Amino acid sequence: MPMRILTHILLIPAIAAAMLTAAHANPVFDPFGLFSGGAPVSRPNMYGGSPTTRGMVSYPSGERPGSIVISTRERRLYYILGNGRAISYGIGVGRDGFAWSGVKTVTAKREWPGWTPPAAMLRRRPDLPRYMPGGPDNPLGARALYLGSSLYRIHGSNEPHTIGQAVSSGCFRMTNADVVDLYNRVRVGAKVIVQR
């Protein structure tokens, strides 16, 4: 019995070291947000929190590399690489009555943005704060890409389990790891095409 306890005691540091090595080698595997710039979370989700995964896909498109195509029906965001390829990300989209389509431009990018709920949202949800500073509890998550002069954004989320669902007020949610990856690729001025 004492040998079994000793084995378990020695195994714990080995597992921790393996997790840290994996997180350094592969920023996608960073369940605690330590190395990827993702949000620190109070309840770490070892399984990523999203039913969809980021990946390289075949995506023939006439759009220029660096553009973004959002399919609200598929609940996917495509970052166009060119040569018929794109990076596909899972997203949360606007719930019934809040879905929209059109063409916008990324006009600003923010890290750990503060959030001021719009007046219409405050009328629907008077319990919301009037302002929330950026941080892990902020619903905009780790990064935000602002779309034109609209109130809409592509942003991270402190609720990764909502990715793949229609729950927002028109913004597009991503996991914090995915929005950090996208943020690092997208330039201000990029075209964003939103399709239903």
Q: Helix tally?
A: 3
Instruction: Give the total of domains.
Output: 2
Question: Mind telling me which CATH architecture of the largest domain this is?
Answer: Beta Barrel
pLDDT < 50 runs, ≥5 residues: 20-49
CATH topology of the largest domain: L,D-transpeptidase catalytic domain-like
The H/E string reads HEEEEEEHEEEEHE
| CATH class (first level) name of the largest domain | Mainly Beta
Structural class: alpha/beta
Backbone CA Rg: 19 Å
CATH homologous superfamily label of the largest domain:
L,D-transpeptidase catalytic domain-like
Strand content: 25-35%
Mind describing the biggest β-sheet?
Answer: 9 strands, mixed
Mean pLDDT: 82
Characterize the overall form: globular
Distance separating the two termini:
61 Å
Strand order of the largest sheet: 1-4-3-2-11-6-7-8-10
Tally of extended strands? 11
**Which range best describes the helical content: under 10%, 10-25%, 25-40%, 40-55%, 55-70% or over 70%?**
10-25%
How does this model look, in words?
The protein has 196 residues and is of the alpha/beta class. The chain folds into two domains: 1-30; 55-195, Beta Barrel (L,D-transpeptidase catalytic domain-like). Helix content is 20%, strand content 26%. The protein is built from three helices and eleven strands, in the order H-E-E-E-E-E-E-H-E-E-E-E-H-E. The chain has helices at 2-25, 119-124, 176-185; strands at residues 55-58, 68-71, 76-82, 85-90, 93-94, 102-111, 143-147, 153-155, 166-168, 172-173, 191-195. The chain has a nine-stranded mixed β-sheet, with helices on one face. A two-stranded parallel sheet has the order 5-9. A hairpin with a 2-residue loop joins strand 3 (76-82) and strand 4. Residues 20-49 have low confidence and may be disordered.
